[in-house]
Every structure is written in structure tokens, then in C-alpha cells.
Amino acid sequence: MTGAVTRRDVLRVGGVAVTVAVTGSACSFLSTKPTGSDSDAGTAKKTKEPPALAAQVKAGKLPPVKDRLPSKPLVVQPNEKVGRYGGAWHLRLSGEAYSDAATIYSFAGYENLVRWDPTFKKVIPDIATSYQVNADSTEYVFVLREGMRWSDGKPFGPDDVVFAVQDILMDKRITSVPPFGDMKAAKVDDHTVKVTFTKPNGTFVNYLATRRGAALTDYPRHYLERFHPKYNPQHATEAKKIGFKDGIAVLQDVGGTWSFGRNPHKPTLYAWVLTTSSDQKSQVVVERNPYYWKVDPEGSQLPYIDRIVYQVVGDDEAALLKTLNGEIDVSTPQLKDKPVVAKYRDRGNFRLFDVVPEAMNVACIYPNLTHEDPVKREIFNNRNFRVGLSYAINRREIIKAVFQRQGEPWQVAPRKESTYLDKEMATQYTEYDVAKANEILDKEYPKKNARGVRLGPDGKPISFLVDVATIVPTWADVLALVVNFWQKVGIDAHVNTGSPEIVVERGQANKHDFSVWAGEGGLDGVVLLNPYNYLPLLNPYSFFGVKWAEWYNTKGKAGERPPADVRQQMALYDKVNATSDMDEQVRLMKEILRIAKQRFHAIGIAMLPNGYGTVANKIGNWPKFTTEGAWVYMSPAPTNPCQYYIKPS
């Protein structure tokens, strides 16, 4: 086939829709290649540094590469093979500020004291070569990589970390809610920094591997102290030069951790350096960092690719067409577009890869176990009632009708890819068995009215609303089927759709009967750091027990004291947060999940199937899969974009 793919071509392929949906805040990318002299092909001859930087060294504009690298550079093992220098990589921005910031960061940023390994399961050294933790997890000592430099050539060291903690995170004028709680930082020597907490913080290192971890290593003191009132009484004068009223405003905006895509003047430790701002609303370009501190196994300085060009393309239909025409380097189209994407992959010169969802379920259904109505509370807290409802759901029919036969019946439980997988937890009560559902419900609520609706302990019909937010269109489709299944076994349930704000507001006020929300907690990092689907930690997102979550978060001053087994979960999670032993964290979390399995406090529908993406055939060392989970994993960043390369034509 020759010629460009058109909208008409797309519509011929089985009526496939032509929209591209963002599956995570950093997961939809497209490029349009700007005119210019950039070549997509890498250089033929491999050297210890890129030819462009070697030319600057020869011209006296840069120090030799050995003087730009730390004494012990971090050696990155390539996904497939040692790459080659050169070329430009073209990606898409959607035009939505928060999503675009995450996209820029997840491809060109992500350098913390520690990081996720390429499997997204282990935390490994990065800027810090090692660290030690005291017995009660209140003191962390990090040894920094000696000889590292910011992208402007200035030394990086403990002073920068101390500045970030003491003068940014713990200054209430700048940071209203510190991301790691009350903490202090002190310089031990020229390569060592100590971070201390007022109470145990065992998951600190885990959080350092997430997007949150940039807070300690993304504040170059030599650049930012001119805007800080503590160091410069004339901070407002400096701030007004760049359009801000004072230094505090600068530090909260273009000086902060989300400024990488907006402030080309701020030095960085990342593989590429910003040259244009996303505020321009058209194109963002990042160029290689001459002081980047990582090398390949042959000792050649990374990154391989010269620059990344992010083009703002807001129209999803245009995005799909450009994907099919091979005018992009990476994209993640919708699942329903897969037939047309597969049809045109040869013409577009791209291949497909797996995208493992972070979420474990297409929709989680939560009965309100702390309901204000005593009768509904009694019914909803009856475990057999919940089990009966689960057996009544024909999950296979839902998967066929709503998800194009993609997925498998699954409860509220970690994914198959997770260390925390418990197959019994994931599959219990997922069989479609109307006879068993009726048998269980008949024992609990045998009486029915003339319409066949079961009667509760007060003699009134068991009737309730299921709040469904419109933020995810498939939720309403799923619940329309679910309530129909429940009505067939004598339960008068009805869907109550509303905006996410309304659903959240009703949850916060404890005014909901049942609610539906996202199935977060499929992969290891989120199971550990944000397990609100497994025990009541967040009001309202732990919709099954918002008053219990309030009790936990206020240390009993508000909310409602939960049952003994829920209190046991909370005590176990306190221990998770108190220990820095990652094996012990896993053991404790498995015990929390065991209790969640026994309680069966929420009903799942199906595990999300793997998504897919497209990557240009010219991109080398691309991983076999990436994942979602923007704030935790910042995918594909853990797979080391610095070692991707452009293959020769």
C-alpha cells in the first residue's frame, strides 16, 4: 500500500472509532515532525561522547567528557544492545497542562536519589549510590554520587538537598503541606547528607522512587537562592525580572518540581535540558545535557538521542491518523482502535508493545458500610448479602458487551503481575451462578413483596442507589448491567449518575448507598503506597468505610471506630509505614490483603486487560512493555529513556 492513511481509510476498517483516549496522565503521546535540519538517524561511529559535544570541547566551549562525568558514573545496561548517538525523537503533548507536564517529565526527566528498576518492582540507587537507615526508620543517610554536576556545570551535592528540605519543603511560605511530613536535612560531608524525621517513616525510600522524590533533588541552590527571602532581601526585584511579584511566587511556580517543562533557565540533573517552554502552547524541545552523569557499558556518555521534540496536538482524531501514517515515534491508542492500528502498522513503520495497566479493575463497587441509615447499614454489612450480589453478576457478559471481550472476571485484588497476587482473593465469588445467589439471599432475606423485591429486617423492600461518576463512560454501562442482574435476584438497585464532584461530595458526607470508583492498587508500588481499596484510608475514596477512614486519619477524634479486623488492618499499615525493611513491608501488606479477602468489603467486575502502544521501528532499546500509574511509576521513565537510540536508516 502507498499513500497516506485518511479518515476514510480508518472508517473502512470495521467501523473502528477514530479517537485516542488518555489512559493515564503520562500515557498518550504523538509527534509531528517540524521542519529543520534534524536527522532521525544516529551517527555511524561510536565514541565516548556525542560528536556535537566533542566539537564544543574542541572549540573550548566545554570541558573534556572525563571532567564532566562523576568519578563513578552510573552504568546503564541497555534493554537490547549498546546504541548509537544522534537523531531526534518526536512525541505528542495534548495541550492539557498537568498531563503535558507529566509527559515531558516521564520521557526526559525522573532522576531521584533512588528510582524504580525497569521491571517497576524494585527500588534501586540512582543519584545516591547507597543509603543507610536507623532501627526506627527516623534517620536516613544518603551517599551521593561524587562529582555530579547540574546541567550548567555547577557542582551538585549535599548543600542542594539541604536547601530543598530546609528552605523549600519545610518553609511554610513555600510549601503548605510537606510531601514527606516533618523532616530535617543536614550535610554530613561533601558527599553525604542525613535526613531525619520526628516519627518513623519506613516508606520514605519507596516514596523517593515516585514523582514525589524529585522534591529533594530538583532545587539547584545556586540558581534558586536569589529568589529566596532567606538569602536575598531583594528577591522581589529578581522575581519581577521574570514576571513574578516576589521570590516566593517563583519558588512555587517555575522554580518548583513541576517546572521542568516550563523553565528553560533552571539547571537540571536530567538527561535532556529544556530549551523552550510549554507555556508557548505549540512545541517543547529538550536537548541533551552535556553534564549527564550516566554512561553505557562501554563508558560512552548518555543519552544517545540528541533531542526530544514535543509537539502540541490537541485533536485525537488527527493523532490517530498521524500514528497510522508513521509521523510519530510513540503513541497509545484506544483498545477499540487496535484493528485499524494493526492493519496499518507496516505502512506506518511501527510495532506494537504492551502497556500493563496499574489499575486492577474496570470498576470497583462499594457498599457504604458506615451508612447513616441503620437498616441499610445492617444489610450492607452482611457479608452474605455482598457474596450473593457478587454471584448474581454475569461478568462474562459485561466483558463481552462493554470491553470487546477483553479482560477476565476479577475482584478487588492485585493484578497477576503483582508480588501481592492472591488468586483466591481475585476470583472468589466471581462465577455467574443465579441459583447460588438466590440460595444465599433466600437464607438472609427470604420474604418478598408483590413485585418480587426482597424485604429487609424492617419489612421494607431492599432498595438502594449506586452512585456512578461520569468521569469514566464505561462505568455507567457496566452498572446498567449490574443492577439488572441484581433486580433479577430480588434486589431493587438503581444507577445514580453524576459528575465526579457530586459523587465525591456525597461520599465525603457519607450520604451514598453504593458508589463506584477506580480500581487502583493493581501493581506493587500502588498497593503499598496507596492501598485505599483494601483498607479504609481515604475519605471519600475508601467509599466502603469513609467514617472509618476519618477515624483513622484523626486518630479517633472524629469519624467512627471500625470493627476489630479493620482496626487490625490499620495497625498493620502503621507498621508498614514504620519499617524500612522492604521484605517486611511486603509481609505486612499481604496480611492486610488477607483480612481484606476475608472481609470482602467491595465487589469487583473484571481485571483491566493489557493496553497497547505503538513505537516507531527506528527506535532501539524500547522495552517490551511499559505500565501506567503516573505519580508512582512515571512510565516509561524507569526503563531508562537515556539508552533508547535511533537505528540507522
TrEMBL record:
Residues 32-55 are annotated as: Disordered. Residues 122-519 form the Solute-binding protein family domain. One of its GO terms (biological process) is peptide transport. It comes from the Bacteria. GO terms for molecular function: peptide transmembrane transporter activity. It holds the Pfam family SBP_bac_5. This is Peptide/nickel transport system substrate-binding protein. It comes from Actinopolymorpha singaporensis. The lineage of its organism: Bacteria, Bacillati, Actinomycetota, Actinomycetes, Propionibacteriales.
